[in-house]
């Protein structure tokens, strides 16, 4: 094996299993992705496969003579960044790559080699891809009769239909709903969502309505084993995911057929939550400026973000569209369909405003609970 890759493997063996901030051991999946990012980029650096803009044209970058990972310099990092910008990757992708390389540089005692995200976003070649939804991705927005379609799917595969109902009812991702252990997750007043979450961020979802309780009880009845999840024991998660997509395609639901996916049910649930709180449709579903005051809109968006498992209120725009108070959402380039979830993007809001919103979200949650509480 070449000396370069021997040194690379030694670095990764020593540091590669540690999380960026906490130092805790990362999952195998994260380890695999991180290693893949670095290997691919080093191959491109040394093999001449990088792209860059030159006089408005995309050209191929020269190859770099890099005999050791320890010889990494600022010019190499800049060449990588130029390549990502030339390929027009999303902001969330750029943030992930910068984070991985920032950590690698710390491993080789060059912690200041990678520029900050804000600096990269200010580069002339950076082309912003808006994270604000301009297309209604909910199932109903794609012309689907949601209750009728779920009944149709249940007639051929009850387990798939139940996972889809969990996604809709609790605004879960497909992986979260599939890996949910109904018995263990049921904490009485709330649902404990901890398996399959993005970034392994644990969250709770109040069980405040009869519909939520009924769906969860059916999930518990389907999974008799208290430690089991919704994925059948004879399937891996990947096999189960492919099966779900196959069943949906048979019932006419796919990006190719009608521009809809399983993730549309998560959008459906989060838009429904916004409408329950504000009393009006979200911007992406036809809401108009002036229909809701600024404070209520902010509170509702904070609730949507927390229900979705995100920490930033601004992420709600990826599901709801732009704000309703005062002006129409600005035009944006819609992101292409993706199997991944929406990226997080800060809207520049004051931290004090975010804290105020979080404090009042509890009051809104109580209001919804009192209106639709289980007797």
TrEMBL record:
SUPFAM superfamilies: DNA breaking-rejoining enzymes (SSF56349). Keywords: DNA recombination. One of its GO terms (biological process) is DNA integration. Residues 326-359 are annotated as: Disordered. Transmembrane segments: none annotated. It comes from Sulfuricaulis limicola. One of its GO terms (molecular function) is DNA binding. Residues 341-356 have a biased composition (Acidic residues). This is Fis family transcriptional regulator.
């Amino acid at each position: 094996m070449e000396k370069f890759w021997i040194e690379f493997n030694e670095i990764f063996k020593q540091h590669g299993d540690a999380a960026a901030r906490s130092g805790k051991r990362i999952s195998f999946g994260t380890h695999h992705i991180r290693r893949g990012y670095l290997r691919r980029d080093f191959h491109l650096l040394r093999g001449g496969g990088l792209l860059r803009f030159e006089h408005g044209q995309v050209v191929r970058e020269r190859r770099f003579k890099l005999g050791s990972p320890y010889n990494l310099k600022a010019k190499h990092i800049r060449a990588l960044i130029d390549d990502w910008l030339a390929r027009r990757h999303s902001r969330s992708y750029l943030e992930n790559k910068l984070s991985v390389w920032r950590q690698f540089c710390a491993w080789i005692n060059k912690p200041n080699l990678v520029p900050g995200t804000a600096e990269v976003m200010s580069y002339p070649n950076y082309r912003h891809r808006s994270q604000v939804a301009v297309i209604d991705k909910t199932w109903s927005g794609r012309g689907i009769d949601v209750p009728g379609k779920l009944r149709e799917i249940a007639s051929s595969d009850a387990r798939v239909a139940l996972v889809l109902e969990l996604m809709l009812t609790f605004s879960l991702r497909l992986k979260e709903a599939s890996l949910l252990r109904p018995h263990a997750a049921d904490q009485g007043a709330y649902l404990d969502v901890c398996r399959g979450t993005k970034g392994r961020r644990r969250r709770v979802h109040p069980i405040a309505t009869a519909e939520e309780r009924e769906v969860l009880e059916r999930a518990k009845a389907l999974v008799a084993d208290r430690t089991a999840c919704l994925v059948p024991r004879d399937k891996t998660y990947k096999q189960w995911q492919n099966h779900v997509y196959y069943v949906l395609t048979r019932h006419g639901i796919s990006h190719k057929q009608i521009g809809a996916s399983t993730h549309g049910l998560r959008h459906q649930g989060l838009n429904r939550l916004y409408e329950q709180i504000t009393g009006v449709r979200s911007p992406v579903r036809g809401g108009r400026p002036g229909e809701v005051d600024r404070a209520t809109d902010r509170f509702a968006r904070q609730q949507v973000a927390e229900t979705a498992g995100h920490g930033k209120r601004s992420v709600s725009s990826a599901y709801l569209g732009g704000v309703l108070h005062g002006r129409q959402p600005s035009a944006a380039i819609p992101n292409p369909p993706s199997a991944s979830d929406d990226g997080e993007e800060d809207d520049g809001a004051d931290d004090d405003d975010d804290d105020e919103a979080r404090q009042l979200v509890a009051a809104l949650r109580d209001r919804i609970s009192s209106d639709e509480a289980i007797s």
